[in-house]
Amino acid sequence: MRKLILGILGVLLIVGAIFLGNYIASSKKKTRPVPEKVVKTVFTDTIENKTVKIVIPANGNLVAKRRVELYAEVQGVFRSTGKLFRPGQEYSQGQTLISIDASEYYASVQSAKSNLYNTIAAIMPDLRLDFPEVFDKWQIYLNSFDMDKTTPKLPEMTSEKENYFITGRGIVSSYYNVKNLEQRLSKYRIRAPFSGILTEALVTEGSLVRNGQKLGEYIDNSVYEMEVSLGKSYATLLKVGESVELNNIENTMSYLGKVTRVNGSIDATTQTIKAFVEVKGKDLKEGMFLEAKLNAKEERNAIEVGRGLLLDNNQIYVVRDSLLDIIDVKPVHFSDTKAVIKGVPNGTIILAKPIPGAYAGMKVKAFQNKENSSKSTSSN
Asked: What's the pLDDT score for residue 242?
């Protein structure tokens, strides 16, 4: 009996161990959760076609519109004018830029003027006797003759006899000889042709200036020009007089210029056309680098989108019933960050920002701004 009881207990222990093992094994099994389908939230725009201004970006350096390179046409010692001949020195129109010592040459001019005066004075008695009708005008000419001023123009000769008489005495040739000397004497003093600033000085006071030597450069610092190169497709679109917005590199200062000239020929090497933009401003300096935005033309029934939204096959994503779809579009202009396209019907909802991994048929959810949830946005 005892053996029977022990056998039954052994069987029960074995069965219990089996059930306990199965229970422990079954408790370690975890059910794999069903992955939840993620719906991406996207930014969208509702399209409204309108007229888009095509703006062409360009850049260049400012150059003074009026510039004078100063050269010596005579020889002598550079004398002080009261202002230091140094870069950055400003002058008003008519002020002396450079004065070259002309004392020796001035003496020869005065000698020639004196000879002319004496020659005319010597014929006055003959004029009184032979040509009394012209005596008065020559007497008035002599009275107005000032050795310290420019030689006045000879009186007009009204008859052939007077002309032969005056010319025969060598007065006309002496007069033009004096005027030639006076003209050369004026080259010893160079005056500012306009108000501006000296940008280069190659001589200093006391230097010996030689004929043909470059002395410096002088510019008008109130008006500048910027040369820009544009694609030949815009040759017929740019017009003289159009306004141009200009900005510096830091985009902290903006200026308003205008197109003053457009080159009539296209560069055969680069296939570009050059345009010149005039701009004024107190803060402008020659050589300053500026970026220009030229209004080339206006494209009707078009929209402007980011270039990242345009697919390689000239297509864009649209949202239809919370699903992405693809439509064909017609690009008409590209800039660095934007693209002007046509062919998108009004009211079409497109992506406002590209999303990674997008594909046609992808389920999306449009982002709703609480403040503007009831407003549709334009692509522009």
From this structure: 84
